[in-house]
Write a structure and sequence with these properties.
This protein has about 220 residues and is α+β, with helices and mostly antiparallel strands. The chain folds into 3 domains: about 35 residues; about 60 residues, Type Iii Antifreeze Protein Isoform Hplc 12, CATH 3.90.1210; about 90 residues. The protein is built from 4 helices and 9 strands, in the order H-H-E-E-H-E-E-E-E-E-E-H-E. It has a 5-stranded antiparallel sheet with strand order 5-8-7-6-9, covered by helices on one side. A two-stranded antiparallel ribbon has the order 1-2. It has a two-stranded antiparallel ribbon with strand order 3-4. A hairpin with a 6-residue loop joins strand 7 and strand 8. The longest helix is centred in the first third of the chain and has 41 residues. The chain is elongated, with a radius of gyration of 39 Å. It starts with 9 loop residues before the first helix and ends in a 10-residue tail after the last strand.
Length: about 220
């Protein structure tokens, strides 16, 4: 009689001992933990580099002055704020820590940086403050002190305007010095700096007909010497 030996199956020969399987699992977890540690360290290094880069850039910037509203010729710039610009161009503008003294020589738009040389102490021109009581419909919306305006008069009587029935400009590029709401009738009181030699013309126009004031656009304003 021949005895046949059983050959071990492939499945049994491929089995891994329980101890080796546990060590493999622990090694896998260790590698995962190491990856997380290295990933966290990399993020910390990148954050530190980014912070150093930003700090280095801030040292290359200088604070200068920026207009927060339109500035007309002849106005005193008070509506300003400091902003940072690259040091390479900062010398072209008024530094934020400078003493702002003088009047604007040419118009500056809102958001524009204040250039060096834009301020000057102009020779004083004799003016008088003349207050006009105006209907809100005859004044620009949002009129503010410092704006530059023209004043026009319209009369119902053509004879009062030399036979002309159209509106006549009696004042050109006058600076608004104050704007206040009237207590009665919802009107406005607008004070203008009127050249001394034109005060009588403005007062006569007030007695003759209705006054309208019109804002002079920045593009049309004359540059001061």
């Amino acid at each position: 009689m021949h005895l046949t030996r059983e050959r071990p199956s492939a499945t049994r020969s491929a089995e891994v001992p329980a101890g080796q399987e546990g060590r493999a699992a622990r090694q896998s977890r260790a590698r995962l933990s190491d990856a997380r540690v290295w990933g966290g360290a990399t993020l910390l290094v990148l954050s530190a580099l980014a912070g150093a880069l930003l700090l280095g850039r801030s040292g290359d910037e200088v604070a200068v002055l920026q207009a927060t509203r339109d500035l007309s010729v002849g106005s005193v710039p008070v509506d300003l704020q400091p902003v940072l610009v690259p040091r390479a161009v900062a010398d072209s503008y008024v530094a934020a820590d400078s003493l702002v003294d003088g009047q604007v020589r040419w118009p500056i738009s809102a958001g524009e940086l204040l250039p060096r040389g834009v301020l000057a102490n102009a020779a004083p021109t004799p003016t008088r403050g003349v207050t006009l009581a105006l209907d809100p419909g005859r004044t620009p919306v949002g009129l503010l002190a410092g704006d530059l305006v023209d004043a026009w008069v319209t009369s119902d009587s053509p004879e009062a305007l030399g036979g002309r029935s159209t509106s006549v400009r009696v004042l050109e590029e006058a600076t608004v010095t104050a704007v206040e709401a009237s207590s009665f009738g919802g009107g406005l009181s607008v004070e203008l700096a009127v050249p001394l030699e034109q005060v009588d013309d403005v007062i006569e126009a007030m007695r003759t007909g209705a006054i309208d004031i019109v804002t002079v656009p920045l593009a049309d304003q004359s540059i001061a010497p």
